[in-house]
Amino acid sequence: MSTEIEYKPGLEDVPAAKSAVSFLDGKKAVLEYRGIPVEVLAKESSFEEVSWLLIKGDLPTQKQLAEFDHDLRQRRAIHFRLKDLIKCMPADGHPMDALHASVAALGMFYPCHTVTDPAKNWDASCRLIAALPTVVAAFARTRRGEEIIDPRSDLDHAANFYYMLFGKEPSPATRKVLDACLILHAEHQMNASTFTARVTGSTLASPYQTIASAIGSLSGPLHGGANEEALRQFEEIGGPEKVKPWIEAKRAADPKYKVMGLGHRVYKVKDARATVLQEIAEHVFAETSRPKAYETALEVERICAGIYGPKGIYPNVDFYSGVVYQSLGIPTDVFTPIFAIARVSGWLAHWTEQLVGNRIFRPEQISIGKTDVKYVPLEQRA
Ligand code: ACO
């Protein structure tokens, strides 16, 4: 291939698909799911309704939503052998690794090898949305030596997840916060994990393999894993008064030091989701008190706006999500799995879209290695 073709590291600005799932304007902080602003959905909608909206393209009717909700509740329970598998996983393993392995295994219990039947694809989509919280809660408990709690069909998606995690129902305020967090993380255009899902889906792999691939992609600290890193960073700093010396020391040691939870390939202003999450955080802390990590985060945002603002680097969704999850009592390494519980609906929407007129992804490369090299037998090599 000619080396004259422009190479864009990270495929910046290179369209990878035509998509109607969401719209993003990174200069105006606009994010819409199927045309509806995410802020409106976070306040007015539910994660179940948003999942339907993303995958099907329009808001459901009352009847459609009731049937979908019923279908999800029916698919929450996981096979007892999958529970056994989860119990055998190392207790000190990362929950994202447990989720990745469990989702691939889920596809062995509920196979969907051909992806040409829309009814089977929809069934698998419902199972994936419904079962991810069960898997995440199961591993979160067994690694602490606690019994797995089976799902309840009388609770909605967010409340049931909280119940499986803690063995008690959330307060209405906590349920709403968790539901809003799921909505805010459900979809975000052509990010790394969504691209991964589309690439795997384009090979006509099963939906379980497609979602397992996306989970692997989400786990990295430059993507979904940033929410854990952001909270650890605020804890490491130790308080708002220590932010200035901390950032000065980091930048002195490495001028390119990356502050976790800041920056985005597309957003050049503060991420709309970070703004909504901050409102949610304020709402949660009004009932308790502001944790030190939140006070620290506010000061990091303030000081970094002066340093990085001119470069268009502002808080992204991961900046405040960890602080909110921590205030709900959720362990730090379960933050990214919660991201996956939410994002599965966006991944499935893109997978469904990809399968229409699918063409396998097979990009080019600019070859820079040697060519026509003579093979030297092993015994003749020095
Ligand atoms: N702190 C300080 N400087 C930053 C940051 C940051 N968090 N992010 C980017 N920059 C600077 C870079 O040093 C670079 O500077 P330069 O032009 O002087 O060389 C410039 O901004 C561009 O940065 P890139 O890393 O090239 O931007 P890219 O679009 O490739 O990466 C990313 C985007 C990965 C999100 C990056 O901003 C980052 O690593 N942020 C921290 C991790 C994070 O919060 N990830 C979550 C993203 S949101 C999500 O996935 C849900």
From TrEMBL:
* CDD domains assigned to the protein according to its UniProt record, in alphabetical order: citrate_synt_like_1_1 (cd06112)
Q: In which pathway does it act?
A: Carbohydrate metabolism; tricarboxylic acid cycle; isocitrate from oxaloacetate: step 1/2
What is the catalytic activity of this protein? oxaloacetate + acetyl-CoA + H2O = citrate + CoA + H(+)
Residues in the active site?
H264, D318
Query: Does the record bear Transferase in its keywords?
Result: yes
The UniProt entry, under InterPro entries, shows:
2-MeCitrate/Citrate_synth_II (IPR011278), Citrate_synth-like_lrg_a-sub (IPR016142), Citrate_synth-like_sm_a-sub (IPR016143), Citrate_synthase (IPR002020), Citrate_synthase_bac-typ (IPR024176), Citrate_synthase_sf (IPR036969)
Record keywords: Transferase, Tricarboxylic acid cycle
**Keyword Transferase applies:** yes
Q: Which family does it belong to?
A: Belongs to the citrate synthase family.
User: What does UniProt give as the signal peptide span?
Assistant: none
Q: Which GO terms describe its biological process?
A: carbohydrate metabolic process; tricarboxylic acid cycle
**Got a GO cellular component term for this one?**
cytosol
State what protein this is by name: Citrate synthase
The GO terms describing molecular function are:
citrate synthase activity
